[in-house]
Amino acid sequence: MIGEQTPACGPARDALIAGGDFVVWEGLTPADQHAGVFRRRLRRSERRGHVFEGLAASVDIFQQAGDELLRAGCIEPVDKSPVFMIFLDSTATAVVACYRMRRPTTPQTTADAPE
Known about the structure:
By secondary structure, the protein is an alpha+beta fold.
């Protein structure tokens, strides 16, 4: 199901094999709508120096897919490393695109800081 559609697909597959949790959300969204949203996210992340594995390839795939309806979901690795966003066809039988997103880091406050 997860091939090598983007550079993040191999690590996402490995995370599932290792026992990671996954969820596929209800609802369908046209691929070109995802293309617009994630193109903006890609530009913002590049300006800030953030790297999202597979995001640029996913945007290209969304643009090529046009109005094809997609389901979205995520994979959370067992080791709690960054989660993967996955996009499947409308029947949830094939992965169309995948990228790895970074978890936001929460700065420790003085009260939470170890002594």
